[in-house]
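Incident log entry.

Two folding requests arrived from the same account within the same minute. Monitoring flagged them as a possible duplicate submission, but the sequences differ. Recording both here for audit purposes.

Request one:
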Amino acid sequence: MKKILRTSFYSIGSRGFMTATTIGLTWIVFHEIGEKAGGIFGISQVFYYLFSLLTSYELTIYFGREVSKYRDNTDKLRSLMGENLTALITGLGLSAGVLLLLWMFYTPISGPVLLIASISGIIYGIEKNLSGFLLGHDEMKIEFIVQGISFLIVMLPAWLAPNALGITGIYIIRTGASILSIFIRILFSPIRSYLSLKSIRFRFSDSKEIYYFAAMGLCFFVQYYLDQFIISFYVSTSQAGAYFLAGRIFSAFCILPEVSSFALIPYISRIHSGKETGQSESIHSFNRKIIAWGALFGWAA
């Protein structure tokens, strides 16, 4: 239970930094740069998350589960890293095609903003899957530290000089923070021990399950972001930005049960694979309490 509480604390904290970054940037853009810029930022976030989906296949949970079961099996871990790199390589190909189509036919935001938001999303997709590897190793403390550093790197310049940065500058520093956090994850976690390209096989060992998680990620994107893309054709950028801001505030209040369930993935996986015993009831009890407190928190907010 101590491990569960510790992992949940760091998981909630790291996700809290991510949510605070998005909410904070949205507030700064709207109040310091202007409503029109806020609308452009809101629309560009659709592509930020779209390209993170294309390069990650939303396999964070999959890697967290599999790494937790095979954390002592170096060959299996290398195989999982190969799946991660396979998703990245194929995703980059998909991203190039989608970006070309958007560049040719999508007009609500300018080409440079579209490009930098897409590149930043691609880097974020790499981040997400590495977070799954850390989750499987119960190394969410590193994730917490990384997200805290990223928060400071992004928010301090945005707070001090928002007009000088503009939307493009904000995405540039966000991309830089993501790249730095990727290197920190690799250097100071068990990931480094099996990141050897000589022994990594570039393939999916269980394509059906990969497609399942990718489909779930696509459904999530459709549920939370496709409407923003559609309304960008019909309303002003200021109105689109207000719509985006309302959605971000709503999602922030769903964070507690979401990340707590996320934190339990390694333990549930190890129980079902026979690597942990006598913990099932404790985990389910903990999860029920978190969901109840999360619902109460969201209602009160």
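Request two (distinct sequence, not a duplicate):
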Amino acid sequence: MGTQSNRPVQAEALIPVEQDTITFYGHKLVAVRLKDGQIAAVLRWLFESLNLERTGQMQRIERKTALRDGLIQVRVDTEGGPQTMPALTLDVLPGYLFTIDENRVKQEARADVILFQRECVKVLADHFTHKHQTLAPTPADATAAAVIIEQIADLTGVVNLLREHLEALLILPGQVANHSTQVGETRALVESLAERQGTTESQVAKIEARTQRLTQRLTPAHARAVQEQVDRIVRGTQKLPQPLTYAMVYGRLKHKFRAGSYSEIADERFEEVMDYLREELQRATGGEAPEQGSLF
């Protein structure tokens, strides 16, 4: 006679207090935390990750009393709206995973089966445990974060200046001689910004907020004069051994005046900006241009 489970029959789907999607070696798993603190993995994404057929796997779980005791129905938020789905609690999930024979699954899924058996339960448990722990950053962490944020601010500022320059060219007929060069530099900087960002959207939002200082911006005429002078510098140094690019000029301009946009340069500093750009051109054409290298 088979052993009967003492687990009460679940009357309705449990509503979790928390639901998260966790990336595990390139696979997306959905897990929930219940009111009693238990964590459960939603089986749909587990089956999909290991390329397993749902019906056969559910029958395997239901045949085992211990596994059946950890099988629950939970309410899961999906793109199509809330749905009731089966899930296994973490206390029985290892037992289920070890019923899967890696030699009997498709070749491409074998390595994943072994990884899931070894690490999946720990990763899911650690995710919810660490999520609710507030750890003070070490000085090294704080320093690294500050460096990353500053790099993003630098790149964002130069991209802003290049975009403003490009927008001005596009609205003036006959001023697009260097259009392709500027587009290429802007695209390269944008891609560099994306690669080096490595931070959350909240960090980017803070950085953008820092660049929006309330100051009297350059007038449109003065902004155009600055752009024309930058054009002269780039054209005038194109044939030199160390030509200056738009990105280099705007990078130095940003650091000189601590501005990532024309809106951050006070109009009263217009002559100072122009004098600086004239000096840059004079140094470059006089053979005194700084060595070409990093903008920052």
